[in-house]
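Team,

Forwarding the record for the chain on the shared tracking sheet. I've put the sequence and predicted structure together so nobody has to dig through attachments.
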Amino acid sequence: MQRVTVIERFSKTFRDNPSLSKLLIVFTVSGGGLVAYSEAEKSYDNSNAGELVEANKRKKKVVVLGTGWAGTSFLKNLKDPSYDVQVISPRNYFAFTPLLPSVTCGTVESRSVVEPIRNIIRKKHVDAYYWEAECIKIDPENKKVYCRSNLSINGNGKEEFAVDYDYLVIATGARVNTFNIPGVEENTFFLKEVEDAQKIRRTVIDCFEKASLPTLSDEERKRLLHFVIVGGGPTGVEFAAQLHDFVNEDIVRLYPKVKDSVKITLLEATDHILNMFDKRITAFAEEKFHRDGIDVKTGSMVVKVGEKEISTKDVKRGEITSMPYGMAVWSTGIGTRPVIMEFMKHIGQGNRRVLATDEWLRVEGQDNIYALGDCATINQRKVMEDIAAIFHKADKDNSGTLTVKEFQEVLNDICERYPQVELYLKNKKMSNLVDLLKESKGDGVKESVEVDIEEFKSALSQVDTDMKNLPATAQVASQQGVYLAKCFNRMEECEKNPEGPLRFRGEGRHRFHPFRYRHLGQFAPLGGEQTAAQLPGDWVSIGHSSQWLWYSVYASKQVSWRTRALVVSDWVRRFIFGRDSSQI
């Protein structure tokens, strides 16, 4: 009895003091060596949220919609205690989505990639509360969001309520884009949520169990074991690789009689898979899949998905063919959620695909509403739209002409406000503005040479051609969440002392520096303990060493030491015992 009490006390101590859990993990990983570790942050318990509501009325109320990468990064980095934060999401956890393909085949367990959102907010210095509900309407005029709870109370249906806000942070993410192709919604599996990965895992085992029944014909058995993945992007490619490894390393030992009937097909509408990667990675991935027996069909556009057959159209020849399948996974892109579409129509953005924000992540036309992650895109202002204002701001003596020296004085502000200028100079291998003026006026340009407004326009006429939208990735959403939290942390200070670039169309400076995305690289796991890595500086690595780099990065990017320990232990378990193929 005393032993049980000691164990309970030991467990409670670690739950109440997360820093001890970190120390235990570091101690274990270090092989029992001496480790010094300090925990800087104090844990705050927000369990008495109701008692604090009255005390928090004087605080600015921030409502956060969503608990994905953008919303969670914002919450983790928000440190100013002057805010009262209300988190609203139908999902009461954060999911590490890059590992969802690993969940589909049992390489990692679903519980290992999720962290309860209440675990995250209870450690904050900020007063933060969570409600499990879905936003159904945004009312910017009255500063309200209308929500519907996913939980039925006393059998009276789902409750609806309204929430006031001073600042609204929209981080609802996106939904799967089916492109209105018949049968996709009804007959395919998506891979965007943890529940999707769990369904795929159960269905894969279902297919093998059904194919093992003695009453099935060979034709039906081959159909059941034909797995089709639609979409040759990183998610589709990684799932195909995970499924291949699962079948060849684990399934064949358990279902030896049906192993020869398994077929994996990857469909891609463009000419190559992994189009966003370096051509060397694309070529290696296609070659490796060919060696592994994965049938890669490029230039194949899905036009219809039936219950047992999927129809594709050859992009070049226009021929339509059908193939039987047992399970199909749809991984082709994202679309806007209905509540965001309605909000866009309300604020005059109904003709856009996603919410448009400025470079500070504010929804265009809305001073107190921010949008980040997959539901929004930055509408970078073009230089040529402001060319007259830029010229006037740089022309300090109002002479009607600019010297190279005058332009050089505002170049840093121009490059910060309009990043396409810096990108254009970099792509043209130009070190400064003098080189740009040389290209426009010819050689021999000196600092004393003056240019008028027309020559100025000519010099900058091409800089907007290199503008690109940011990709809808976890990396972008995470960096946006961190950036916005830092802005909120310094809101009051920057109101008094703005730190951003010059306002070319106004007076003074912008409050904050605009958001800048820093690309840290991308991975494409290809199976067989091989991964392709494309890192900054056009550095490409493919093979087993990149796989270990992938393990290190994904372990370090977990949002808590709990999930980090669980994920690493799952990898170790898989190496020793293989993947679990049981149906639970």
